[in-house]
Specification:
The protein is of the alpha/beta class. The protein has helices at about 1-40, 45-50, 55-65, 135-155, 160-170, 175-180, 205-220, 285-290, 330-345, 360-365, 365-375, 380-385, 420-430, 465-475, 490-495, 530-545, 570-575, 585-590, 600-615; strands at about 70-75, 85-90, 110-120, 125-130, 185-195, 235-240, 245-255, 260-265, 275, 295-300, 310, 315-320, 350-355, 380, 390-400, 450-455, 475-480, 500-505, 520-525, 550-555.
Length: about 625
């Protein structure tokens, strides 16, 4: 019985050992199958190198001193029916600045490689059907989920590749610089395919995100961040001048003739500006400015796109009005022509004139001056509006730079011009021959020429013939000028330029002194009524600024026709300047247009002698 029991125990032991052997065989078999599987999917890697990345991680840690980009390898193996295994190891910076990398892998024959910048994460994924569209989408989704999970464990919520690219893509330009400098280290993604004759085709989203991230990395390595311009533009217009509001601006400028608007195209982020300007040099005179077309100067806005150009110019535009008081030669010059020359002389003719309130006769009268000052035919804003035109310029000025009446002040001129520069321009444009008075010792018996400007409606010189005789008796060759506003400017200019002395009663006709040669003499006869200040301001100061000699003759009560209208004790005689408080309209009607003049010849002979002395002193 004991033998039987012993024999039975032996049988049980053999059976137990047999079970252990079979179990061990199964384990070894599974291990071999796993190794075979791994080797077949990654033939270039050793078994132990695949099972444990620690050796090459340690080697990388010891050989690299700077962060190394990790390699994402996507391999397609025909042996496994298109099953791709991706192992991403991302460099993580240690406490002492160490980083982990991966040894470069050799590329087998016929394999294609594509690189992209991806996020600093660790991704291990299996991609099925690598070349197919469905497989690509599933792999991308799995990659994103894996990246989120790994990043949550390593960096507490690091964003995925797509989120980071979208974030940088949506950042305003002014904050892009900060975003770039705080971005995570980039990872080089390498995609390898074993198909020899066909390049790998990444899915659209992966390709798009990769390009965005690579572009961002290039900006970080090569160029500084670009800051979006949001600084406000300087003011487009200057409203500080007492004679005119002036706008001066550059850029992409559109003149919409239909709305009489200049539009400066700017970035929508730049604060907008909008101004209304009447381009005429009588600021504050409501009567005058009411006759002037208003021009709008503004920046573009997102709600109102700028109009499209119908004509593009390469020269600047200067816009002004010939409304207001033009038609009177004094205002033609003081309000328009003198300021126009001061404003555009620097362009040397390469400037486009844009006019409002155009009168055709005015263009005809001053045609020679306009052709000399600009090489281009003027644009009539009203005609351009009727044609629906939009003119585009690189630079524009609205209104003109005016100083004092008929004067350009050198210290205020942008180009350092002065009044003699303008009168020289006039003589050249009209081909006037004389730049100086006649000389006494010129070998001829020619007398100095004295020219009297005759008036026919107001402030008439009633004893004009007697004045001419007195001038001839003083040694002048005396004559009377009866030029009219309709006469050609060149004819009027030639007549005035021939004179050595010009005599006239206060009024617009004295503006013809512009044509006198420098060194000639202007004699202004000032009507009664305390008008000395305005006479000197309008013609005395300009005459001296032009280089002329100036003599002012102020009549007495007995020389004015007002003595026949008012009693001698009237305020108009006892305190005429007090009447100026009633306004310029009253002054003009009563003191200027309301009187004629009979010169006291005995008094006036002294003026003639002074003028002759000026001539002889040349």
């Amino acid at each position: 019985m004991k033998q039987q029991q012993g024999g039975g125990g032996g049988v049980l032991g053999v059976r137990f050992e047999s079970q252990r052997f079979r179990l061990l065989s199964i384990v070894v078999g599974c291990f071999l199958i796993s190794v075979t599987f791994l080797l077949s999917s990654r033939p270039e890697a050793g078994a132990f190198d695949t099972l444990s990345p620690k050796p090459w991680l340690e080697e990388a840690r010891s050989t690299q001193t700077t962060p190394t980009t990790a390699i994402k390898t996507v391999k397609t193996s025909p042996k496994l029916g298109g099953r791709d295994f991706l192992v991403d190891v991302v460099p993580q910076r240690g406490a002492h600045g160490e980083s982990h990398g991966r040894q470069p892998q050799q590329q087998s024959a016929g394999e294609k490689t594509e690189t992209e910048w991806v996020k600093d994460t660790v991704i291990i994924e299996e991609r099925i059907g690598g070349a197919g569209a469905g497989g690509t989408e599933r792999a991308e989704q799995e990659e994103a989920e894996s990246g989120v999970n790994d990043a949550a464990g390593a960096a507490q919520g690091t964003a995925t590749e797509e989120e980071e690219a979208a974030h940088h893509d949506d950042l305003p330009a002014q904050t892009m610089g900060a975003a770039v400098t705080t971005a995570q280290p980039a990872v080089l993604k390498t995609t390898t395919a074993t198909q020899p004759d066909q390049l790998p085709v990444p899915d659209k989203e992966t390709q798009k995100v990769g390009v965005r991230t690579m572009k961002l990395q290039d900006e970080l390595q090569q160029t500084p961040a670009i800051i979006k311009q949001t600084t406000p533009l300087p003011p487009l217009c200057d409203f500080s001048d007492r004679r005119a509001d002036i706008c001066d601006f550059s850029g992409d400028i559109r003149l919409d003739a239909n709305t009489s608007s200049y539009i400066v195209v700017v970035d929508p982020a730049v604060p907008g500006q909008s101004h209304k300007v009447r381009p005429y040099q009588r600021k504050g005179d409501e009567t005058c400015m009411g006759r002037v077309t208003e021009i709008t100067v503004r920046t573009s806005s997102s709600s109102s796109p700028p109009p499209q150009c119908t004509r593009t110019h390469t020269v600047p535009a200067v816009t002004f009005s010939i409304g207001g008081y033009t038609g009177n030669i004094f205002h033609d010059f003081s309000d328009v022509l003198v300021p126009l020359y001061n404003t555009i002389h620097k362009y040397g003719g390469d400037v486009q004139l844009v006019m409002t309130n155009v009168a055709p006769w005015w263009l005809v009268k001053y045609d020679k001056l306009l052709r000399t000052i600009s090489h281009y035919a003027p644009i009539d804003l009203a005609k351009a509006a009727a044609a629906g035109e939009v003119h585009c310029f690189p630079h524009a000025i609205v209104s003109l730079r005016a100083h004092r009446e008929l004067i350009i002040e050198r210290d205020r001129s942008v180009d350092g011009l002065a009044t003699p520069d303008f009168t020289r321009f006039i003589r050249r444009a009209l081909s006037l021959p004389r730049d100086a008075p006649s000389r006494v010792a010129d070998g001829t018996d020619r007398k100095p020429r004295l020219l009297i400007i005759a008036r026919h409606r107001t402030r008439i010189l009633l004893n004009l013939a007697d004045v001419i005789l007195a001038a001839e008796g003083a040694g002048f060759e005396a004559a009377m000028s009866e030029s009219d506003v309709g006469d050609p400017l060149s004819r009027v200019g030639a007549e005035i330029n021939s004179a050595d002395v010009l005599v006239g009663v206060h009024g617009a006709g004295l503006t013809n002194m512009m044509f006198l040669p420098p060194g000639a003499t202007l004699v202004q006869v000032v009507p009664w009524g305390g008008l000395q200040w305005i006479a000197h301001m309008d013609y005395g100061d300009p005459a001296e600024a032009m280089g002329l000699r100036y003599v002012q003759y102020e009549i007495g009560v007995e020389e004015s026709s007002l003595k026949d209208k008012y009693p001698r004790d009237h305020e108009i005689f006892t305190n005429p300047t007090a009447m100026h408080k009633k306004g310029f309209g009253f002054m003009r009607q009563t003191l200027m247009d309301g009187q004629n003049i009979t010169v006291d010849l005995d008094r006036f002979r002294g003026v003639l002698q002074e003028a002759l002395g000026n001539y002889l002193a040349q």
